[in-house]
Design goal:
Belongs to the cytochrome P450 family. The chain has 402 residues and is α+β, with helices and mostly antiparallel strands. The chain contains 16 helices and ten strands. The strands form three sheets. It has a five-stranded mixed beta sheet. Strands 4-10-9 form a three-stranded antiparallel beta sheet. α9 (165-173) crosses α10 (180-206) and α9 (165-173) packs across α12.
Length: 402
């Protein structure tokens, strides 16, 4: 695997075009060992069938304590006590705790709240576009980020004056497998985030309103959630509740602007928006890799031995470009059917916010194409700035004009 060992898979340079690397892995070494930015070793699984199987395989744990031996746990990086409650979340738990937490989170998403999301997302899109003062703007900073942040903040009951803070805090929390230096630099943001969440929860306990945090506080009062689980759930909903949607809007519009035939086709045939969203999720997956999975026992994937306790990551972006599953996998086709992509995962950990991301992405793209039919890129592809990180793939900024 000449020259592959030096690839930095969380770097902005790699994020710009990871697909040739993944294609080579699928062809030559479909289960490949890498060192993550924090020096932790991990296995990358890159073929569609193997990734789909991994995401549903009960031999893998999400909570490392359910897989690692005491000796292995002793060598793992320790989470600072202040942030330990954030690990008590849906993403890092196994059944029966995961099933309980997921059920409680789902009950908070009532039909009434979903109806509010539709109206608020459309209003947020129109409001952001109405603010544009010139014909050139940053699609990420002025639209793709603030719209989902506004919607999830309103859904959860975050006061309007506090919403701009979440872009900074969420960006910090999404930096998976941070190096010691990045962890040190991020510490103040994380401290502020945790303290803010505790104040917000305390406020909702005293003065509950018709919002998601108040609903979860009421669930906690029944004894179905403890204090740490409540904090972790609110943190996850605030961050994951907009990160995927932001990347779907940004990556999706970039793909359409790079393939103007598909842009014009969707503008001429708006009824294709449903299949277009699915194709954009496949073609430029906002979630590049699955979150952590740890082998509970010695096993094999595609003939490669994996030892108990080892970390395995399913590369969703690679699976979604696998030629064995998708004909002309590297071609953007907004009418593609069937389209069994893995953008939101599989199995019990299938993304809780998938429907929300699809809904917001659909409204955002429809609004952009309707109101800005002449939207175009104003920067070269090789000048695009991608965010550093492991699990997510998204842009720092995207210069456009209309």
């Amino acid at each position: 695997m000449s020259r592959l060992e030096s690839v930095q898979i969380a770097s902005p340079a790699f994020k710009a075009d990871p697909y040739p690397f993944y294609a080579r892995l699928r062809a030559e070494t479909p289960v490949y060992r890498v060192a993550l930015p924090n020096k932790q070793p991990a296995w990358l699984v890159t073929r569609y069938d193997d990734v789909a199987a991994l995401l549903k395989d009960p031999r893998f744990a999400k909570d490392r304590q359910n897989a690692l031996t005491k000796k292995q746990m002793a060598s793992q990086p320790q989470v600072p006590a202040l942030f330990a409650p954030l690990t008590r979340n849906l993403l890092d738990s196994d059944d029966p705790d995961h099933a309980r937490l997921r059920r409680l989170a789902q009950t908070a998403f009532t039909a009434k709240r979903i109806e509010v999301i539709v109206d608020r997302t459309q209003a947020a899109c129109d409001e952001r576009l109405d603010r544009l003062k010139g014909r050139r703007f940053d699609l990420m900073g002025e639209f793709a980020l603030p719209v989902p942040v506004m919607v999830i903040s309103e859904l959860l009951g975050v006061p309007q004056a506090d919403r701009e803070k979440f872009g900074r805090w969420s960006k910090t929390l999404s930096q998976n497998t941070m190096t010691p230096m990045r962890m040190l630099l991020s510490f103040p943001h994380l401290v502020c985030f945790v303290r803010y969440l505790r104040r917000l929860i305390a406020q909702k306990q005293k003065q509950p309103q018709d919002d998601l945090v108040s609903a979860l506080v009421q669930v906690q009062a029944t004894g179905q959630l403890d204090e740490d689980e409540l904090l972790a759930m609110v943190a996850l909903l605030l961050t994951a509740g907009h990160e995927t949607t932001t990347n779907l809007i940004g990556n999706g519009m970039l793909a359409l602007l790079r393939h103007l035939d598909q842009f014009e086709r969707l503008r001429a045939q708006p009824e294709l928006i449903e299949t277009a969203i699915e194709e954009l999720l496949r073609f430029e997956s906002p979630v590049e890799m699955s979150t952590n999975r740890y082998a509970r026992e010695d096993l094999e994937i595609a003939g490669t031995p994996i030892a108990r306790g080892e970390l395995v990551l399913g590369v969703i972006a690679s699976a979604n470009r696998d030629e064995s599953q998708f004909p002309d996998a590297h071609t953007l086709d907004i009418a593609r059917r069937p389209n069994l992509h893995l953008a939101f995962g599989q199995g019990g950990h299938y993304c809780l916010g998938a429907a929300l991301a699809r809904l917001e992405g659909k409204i955002a793209l429809e609004t952009l194409l309707r109101r800005l039919p002449n939207l175009r890129l104003t920067q070269a592809t090789n000048s695009l700035r991608w965010r550093r990180g492991l699990v997510l793939r998204g842009l720092e900024s995207l210069a456009v004009s209309f």
